[in-house]
Structure formats: structure tokens, C-alpha cells
Amino acid sequence: MNSPQPERLSDLEGAALALIAQSGEATSYQVAAQFAGSPAEYWSGSAGAVYPMMTRLERRGLIVGAEGMTGKRARTVWRLTDQGRAAMIAWLTDAERASEMGFDPLRTRLAHLDLMTAAQRRTFLDGVARFTEARRDPPSFAEKPWMQKVQSSWVAARLHWLSSIRAAIK
Amino acid sequence: MNSPQPERLSDLEGAALALIAQSGEATSYQVAAQFAGSPAEYWSGSAGAVYPMMTRLERRGLIVGAEGMTGKRARTVWRLTDQGRAAMIAWLTDAERASEMGFDPLRTRLAHLDLMTAAQRRTFLDGVARFTEARRDPPSFAEKPWMQKVQSSWVAARLHWLSSIRAAIK
DNA sequence: GGATGCATGTAAAATGTTACATGATTTA
DNA sequence: TAAATCATGTAACATTTTACATGCATCC
């Protein structure tokens, strides 16, 4: 008796709605800039992905745009509709989805550690540990001090994982 | 003085070459089945992604196909060329790429924990811990016992990360 | 011997990347 | 005021998803 099944949000869409919710409103450019500035390289934040996505979200009734001006320049400022907020919260609190493994470039490679020579393996694992360590303090998070903690404990957990692996293949 | 720049492999392509290297040869179907059977839902292993990718890899000279038969059915069996093996090893041993954050559905949501009510937050974090715990022993890895260890220590690291987060937001 | 699932694909549509265009604003 | 950068997009292209087609093998 309710509408056909309001297609579930992709993670890019969910994250975009969440970003709008954070400040109440945002332009496509601002959303794209947030993605681009994330420490996760996965989120490219390219205009070609974000601008069309926003008009899709509008068509689905999840956001509404207000035509505005920055100086002499036209622009659209997006806000969540009630539907959009509900969809965002459903996406955000989906614990099952949140526990999926996602895409992990390290894990993908670990599955093929046996294709490396012993020397390559050593160099590789050392290198990964060094690069991971360097991520402890990325240049973001000015306004979210607790995200600093999320980040640094992510690094700690990864380094711990790496040493378990070293021990296991020894 | 060397060729234009042999475009770098995507992670899907790198992983496909590595899968072929594991057994020496494989059909597109077998590669797709490996992706589909992975505990990481990210790798869909759909035919529409894998079959065309294999012909792309062939055009790039990284694999060669031998026309064969299963009973009365035609099929193509792929093997790595020397170039393909070199490209695969370069992809596999790239420590910098391996240390990227990739796409993590949990981390993406943690960045917006402040949009949840306290009760939602509790339910969410409990749920994630339960679902993560359940991944300790996935039904794969028959022939790679050490991957079992990689998996279980991944779970341990994640649970540890989760409890750091709980402590931080308390 | 019909239904179900395995194996090999292709086609249409959605999504994302890369590259460009264009005007406004800031900076040197 | 010229050059650089910010802001707002669009277009062409590549990739991936979803859905379908088709023939073989197996099982009931």
C-alpha cells in the first residue's frame, strides 16, 4: 500500500545527504569539496559524479533546491526534505551494511601474498606499515575533534592487524 | 623510450590477474565465481563486468586465451603473458596503494555519528559489533588456511577499533 | 523428460571519470 | 590588470549493474 519501494541509497548518496544534514544546507560544490577533502582517496568528489547525483536526489524527492546567488553568480542550495532525512537516517543506522567489508586494497593483496617472493613480502609489509603510520594525523577534521580519535585508532587497529599477519606467515 | 605508459591496473584487473596466476589458467567464469564467492560483498563478480574486462586485458596484451571445449561447449581459457605477470606483480606489491583507506562503510558512517540520537548510536554500535563478530569464520578459504588467520585477525582489529570509538564518544 | 542450475556470454541502462567550458573572484 | 583559483556545470567516454538469452548437464 506504500510506494513501489523507495530504492535504497548508494553509499555515495547516503554520505551526500548526511553532509547536507550536517550544515542544514549545501551546494553541490560544497558536497563535492567535502568528498574530495576526505582522507579516503576512494571518494573522488569529481564534479561529474556529484552534480548529476544531486539532481537525481531531487527527482527522487529527497532534497529540494533553492535558487540563490553568490554575488552575481547563480547557484542552487540544497536542503533535505522530510523523506530525505528519513532515508538518510535509515542509511546511516544500517548496522548490517556498516559491517560489510567494503573495498580494502590491503586485504585484496593479502589474499595473494603467496605470489610474492619472501623478499617482496617483507618489503611490502614494511612499506604498508610505514604508509599506514603516516595516516595517523591527516589534515582534516578541524571541526570534528572526535574524528581525529576515530582516525588514529583506525591506524592503530590496522598496525595491529599487520603484526598479526606477520606473526602468522612467519 | 618505452611504450606510452602502460596504464595502471584497476584493483579489479589486478585481482583478476592474480587469480589467474594462482592456478596458472582460468576461464572468465572461474574468475567471476571467485569474486562472487569472496566474503567482501564489494566484489560483485557479475558476468557483465568480468567477461568484457577479460577481453580488455587481452587487447592490452596482459593475457592470452586458448579456445577449448568443456564437453560440447566452447570456452576460452586465459593465461598470463610475461607482460601480464609483470603488471600483476607491480600491482600486487604496490605498498602505497595498499595502504589507502579504500571504501569502508563503517568509517563513512562514523563520520556522521553526531546525526544519530544517543539511543540510535548505542543500537548501531552494538549491531555492528555483532555482525562483525559473525564474520570471523566465513565459508571460504578451504585451500588457504593462512587466509583464515588474516580474516580472524581482521575481525579482532575491527572489534578493537569499535571499542576505542565507544570509549572516545562516552 | 521437465525443471533446475551451470556456463558463456551480450545489451540496455545507470553510474562514475576525465576533460573541458565559462564566468566570477581573488591575488600578485 | 593579468594570472590564478573558485564555482558551476556539461560532454564524451569507460566501467559496472541489471537483465536477459541460450545451450548443456544434472536431478527428480
- Mean pLDDT across all amino acids of chain A: 93
Low-confidence stretches of chain A: none
- Structural class computed from helices and strand pairing of chain A: mainly alpha
Number of helices of chain A: 8
Strand order in the sheet with the most strands of chain A: 1-2
Biggest beta sheet attributes of chain A: 2 strands, antiparallel
Q: Which value, in Å, is the CA radius of gyration of chain A?
A: 20 Å
- Strand-residue fraction of chain A? 5-15%
| N-to-C order of helices and strands of chain A | HHHEEHHHHH
Distance, first to last CA of chain A: 60 Å
* Gross morphology of chain A: elongated
How would you describe the oligomerization state of the chains in this entry? homodimer
Give the fraction of residues assigned to helices of chain A.
55-70%
Total beta strand runs of chain A: 2
Summarize the largest interface: chains and residue counts: A-B, 62 and 62 residues
